[in-house]
Amino acid sequence: MDFYQLTYLFFAYSFLGWLGEVLNNAVRKHRYQDCGVLNGPLCILYGIGGIIISFTLGDLQQNWIFLFGLGAVYATVLEWIAGHILELVSHTRWWDYSDRKWNLDGYICLGASLLWGLLSVVLIKWGNPLLLFLFHLMPGGVRAVVVWVLVVLFAIDAVGTLLTMLGLRYRWPPAEAVENRLASLTLRAGLWILGRVEGRMTKAHPTANFVRVKKAKPQVFAAGCSPYKIALLFIVGAFLGDIVETIFCRITAGYWMSRSSVVWGPFSVVWGLALALATLLLYRYKDKSASWLFVTGTLLGGAYEYLCSVFTEVVFGAVFWDYSAIPFNLGGRINLLYCFFWGFAAVAWFKVAFPPIERQIERIPRTFGKVVTWALCVFMAVNMIVSAMALVRYNARIEGEPAHNQVEVYLDAHFDDARMQKIYPKAVHTG
């Protein structure tokens, strides 16, 4: 899919999500309730979820069981993250599943997760083909104009909404006029839908708790689930992951090979992100039972590895691992045995490794810790950017494309084929 198709699908699913929420509230609560964050008739959680599922799970169209399972996992994690981010920014709880069975924090529950899985199947099998068919009924020039108009309106709406949530006042009459028109359009559309459902016009406002909880200022460096702690755990996880994979390959394959994800230093970005994300998502549940952590780690780890496999293949045109020879694999991207490994890793991390590492991080002097963390983050950011550029250029050289500018000339000189093959010996280019 190109930019225009993905953007169109984002707006289509955002609108359909808003429409579904309005209809649901009209039928169940007999009132109009706008569940979208923006002024316009969009529920962007559905749009983002639709794009993620379309991008990552498109090749599972014929395997609806795995499509259902992975779609449920991706959408559930997205819903959990979005709920906490919105609460953090706006000090408002936008939805609450606390009254439903098998819920977590009130932001996710088993019933909603199953519904997400079903919607993922519908999206891949029927939703995308139908929406793209309708999209291509429009002339090419009209499609481009429509998409860019929607992008501009969305940008104005999103920026204004974010500034309002952050408590920042701004005055730009043209933008305010656009936002007011979008809000009026959304209200009229919602009330019209309610009128069709109920046979009458009503208006009600959702209850929201705007109570701000004052947090005590931490006295130690990187207390709790601090961004500094997550950043350091990313660095630690990337380093330890590279070491573990290198030793594992030496034992299983009989020779040493590089397992690094970057061109400078022994760092595996996949492991670093896994450790950081696992800690961020599961920190408040670290004291739960080992069985709970194992099941959660297995599901999240498998979904994460599958996402990384799709991303690296699409972006870099290369496959960095292939489990096709291992039983119970899914497209060679994941397999059941390694999914179980993620589960065991989650238990080992939170029950054994994390507590002492957390204590050591929190003992670092605050000023020194902040300086070191920022320095490491800048280094890793540059390292990852250069590595991505080197991989893209490496793939282009394989396809016979000459260097077109000084940057590509530099990459050819400093990251030639021999060096890239040494760093990424398992990379298989897909062309």
Give the N-to-C terminal Cα separation.
Answer: 17 Å
Q: How many E-type strands?
A: 6
Oligomerization category of the chains in this entry? single chain
Helicity range? 55-70%
Instruction: Give start-end ranges of low-pLDDT stretches.
Output: 200-215
Can you summarize the main beta sheet? 2 strands, antiparallel
Question: Structural class of the helix and strand makeup?
Answer: mainly alpha
The Cα radius of gyration reads 24 Å
**Strand arrangement, largest sheet?**
1-2
Shape: globular
Number of helices: 13
Order of helical and strand elements: HHHEEHHHHHHEEEHHHHE
Number of domains: 2
Residue share in β-strands? under 5%
- Rounded average pLDDT: 84
How would you sum up this structure, described in words?
This protein is mainly alpha-helical and 431 residues long. It folds into two domains: 3-198, no CATH class; 227-429, no CATH class. The protein contains 13 helices and six strands. The strands form three sheets. A two-stranded antiparallel sheet has the order 1-2. Strands 3-6 form a two-stranded antiparallel sheet. β1 and β2 (108-109) form a beta hairpin. α1 (3-29) packs across α2 (44-57) and α1 (3-29) packs across α4 (110-135). The protein is globular. The relative contact order is 0.08. The model is unreliable at 200-215 (pLDDT under 50).
